[in-house]
């Protein structure tokens, strides 16, 4: 359920003179598992003192799984799923907290803390510490008691950002400016997202006493997405992008077309699991900075983009996987296949496996310039190099052992 800000009850525990060891043994054992967003665990441990925080989920009576998704207003909806274990196996619950884009980190953190504390009350009330629990109610101010009957912005959310950087040494220097603007309108039945961003950078290097190499790069793009709901499993819409890029040898590029998506699971379950199939037939128009290896200065091509996405977030870990296939119709050999996966799996007590990887078969580089790149341009990555494949893999194992408790917070002289 959603928790109205002005009507949130905060659970408090007034501890008597019982020993710390006695409190540890009696308190509810909880394992917190935040997936996809940052949890300020130190703050939770300070503010929620009526539970024992466990280092491993197998030692807990309650496994709290936290997930988050973006909302139409630019904030996030956080979901805490409370999964009972052992004697509490038959008890489960779900609480949600929605933040807005203007909330500070401290306000979001406090909202998460209140929501988490409220969800744990049901379980803590069944322990021997129940007589020490109390409830505090904060009445709404008269100024905030009035419920707004309309939205003057009609669900539109706007963002503007500008920035830049400057750095240098005696023989090299670099400058860049960047900015972005977006306008989004999201409702349950329709989503419209518009965004533009750009970046200009300049770098200069003294290669020797007489030679100075200067590299400039510009990139800008305007993107649009419109999506309508066709029920709990289907969506239809369109997406487009207008851009220019020194790196991709493009003075101008336009790619756009309709899109159809099917989700095997209902979209309402997207915070825990997602399996989507998306198809986008499109038209691409290119105007190049330099003549390409195919003797083109401009061209218009038909293509299609097929995508599969999978997300599973469970107490044993999480899996993210995606595959995309981009192919031009004028020459079916001009295509790109990309595969991505990210795994975080708890194998046994204390032992976790982490795998992140991406591999791509690249045969769609119709934009490559005919003119050879200089060694300096290659080193500063001013333009894309021709390639048949691309890959990235990261694998790691972690093993933790020792005390099962994870309650203490001590921030003195951090490493």
Which features would summarize this protein structure in a list?
415 residues, mainly beta, Rossmann fold, twelve-stranded antiparallel sheet, globular
Task: Itemize the secondary structure elements and their pairings.
Blueprint: E1 9-13, H1 20-26, E2 28-34, H2 41-47, E3 51-53, E4 62-70, E5 76-84, E6 92-99, H3 105-124, E7 133-137, H4 142-145, E8 156-168, E9 172-186, E10 190-206, E11 212-229, E12 234-245, E13 250-263, E14 273-288, E15 298-314, E16 317-328, E17 335-348, E18 351-362, H5 375-379, E19 389-399
Describe it:
This protein is 10% helix and 52% strand. With 415 residues, it is mainly β. It folds into 2 domains: 137 residues, Rossmann fold (3-Layer(aba) Sandwich); 170 residues, no CATH class. It is globular, with a radius of gyration of 27 Å.
Give the structure's gist in a few sentences.
By secondary structure, the protein is mostly beta strands. Helix content is 10%, strand content 52%.
Order of adjacent strands in the largest pleated sheet? 8-9-10-11-12-13-14-15-16-17-18-19
Shape: globular
Q: What count of domains describes the coordinates?
A: 2
Low-confidence stretches: 1-21, 143-148
Number of distinct beta strands: 19
Regarding quaternary structure, what we see is single chain
Alpha-carbon Rg, integer = 27 Å
Number of helices: 5
Order of helices and strands: EHEHEEEEHEHEEEEEEEEEEEHE
The termini sit apart by 40 Å
Strand content: over 45%
Residue share in helix: 10-25%
Provide the structure class. Answer: mainly beta
Instruction: Report on the biggest sheet.
Output: 12 strands, antiparallel
The mean pLDDT is 86
